[in-house]
Every structure is written in structure tokens, then in C-alpha cells.
Amino acid sequence: MSNRRKFILFGTASVGAMLIARALRAPAPAQAAETFEVTHSDAEWQKLLTPAQYNILRQQGTEPPFTSPLLNEHRAGTFNCAGCALPLFDSKTKYDSGTGWPSFYAPLPNAVKTSDDSSLGMDRTEVHCRRCGGHLGHVFPDGPPPTGLRYCMDGLALTFTPA
Would you name the residues annotated as active-site residues? Predict the structure, then answer.
């Protein structure tokens, strides 16, 4: 193999390895920079949440698309934070975005906060619960009227209370 091919192959492999390492590295949790009304130690959060909920809410993980039972929840009611039960989204704002995650065009007033998220090599806006700091998902500017926003939420970060 020529030196040029070896150089390109090595360079491509190195960049790929760096991107994979960055993707696997857990970003700093949002709750580290702020103080929240509901706080627990890491051990307490692990006892309060399922392992999958803990991964999403406390370690900024995500669930596989099209796996959340809340994706097909169409009753009237409220979607709440699975970490602290704060009401986050009214079912009237839920819509099918086709992405595989529960999506909403607007949160309830004073329910969520956002922060910059540059993990996975892209710039996104993280959405977290304003009361406990739990990671909920991300918001994107490609949603329907009236807001034009898509709050793409992890279903395991939410619970549902029927009206």
C-alpha cells in the first residue's frame, strides 16, 4: 500500500475514533451548573429511577427511536417529568413529528429550561426540567405552527397523567 493511502486511511481512522470517543463520553449534566428545587444525591437518583430513566434524565442519554409507549399516547392530559412529576407539556401540543420520539410544539409555562449542547459533534439546544434539572431531550426549529419548534423528548423522561 502506498504511503499516501496509508496516510489517508490512518487519518480517517483517527478522526472516526475521535468522534466515537466524543460520542461515548458523557457530557457534563445540566444540573452541575445550576441549583434546582428538587435535588438528590446520585445514589438517591439511581434508587428513584429505572436504569434507563437514570441514563436519560441524569446522564443525558437517549432511548432508541420508536420504543416509547408515550409515542402513541393520544389521550387528553399532561406529560410530566419522570424525575420530579412537574407538569411539562399539555397533550394538546403533542404531534407526530415522524422522528420516533414524543414531540411537542410548546412546553407549559415555566416548565423547562434550555442550554447549549455541543455533544456528538453538533450544536443543539438541550431541554431540561426547570425543577430537577433532568435531561428531557432537545428542541429544534423545524416544528409546526404556531411556534415552529419541535420539542423532541425522550419518552422515558416523561410520565403521562390523563385528564
Answer: 152
